[in-house]
Design brief:
about 40% helix, mainly alpha, elongated
Amino acid sequence: MMYPPQDSYPPQQQPFGAPYSPESPYPPQQQPFGAVSYFPESSYPAQQPFGVVPYSPQGPYPLQEPFMVPQPYEAPRNLRATRAIINGMISLVLSVFTLFTLAGFAGLITGTLAIVYGFLGLRAARQLPSNMGRRQAIIGIVLGCLAWFVVLISLIVRAASPSG
């Protein structure tokens, strides 16, 4: 006795509840009335009609962008004036060595640097609030000139001494 052929697979259900019929190659599409059939996946927001201002919620504080990191306040400094006073001190120490050895002539180089940085520091102090660094620049100029004076005096003393 022969039995009629039976379907080995049960009828499949679609997500919306309509049974799948094997006669059509594609499952039927059931959507509510007025629904859009395709939502393109895009990284851009949906466009609005011309002249419409988008709504932004107002809170008690203004919104801050997530990539903005508050930077710590750094007071302006006059680095040229600082370099002038440092070179002035070094040149004065080196010029004192000229009394004992000829290696102290390096005081002329650092003294010159102190004078140059001092004048640059004075120019920069005019542009900073409350003439910041003006005193340091003047002290650097004075120390550089004093180092030059000590080196010249030590040269005169060496030339006038009988030992040579």
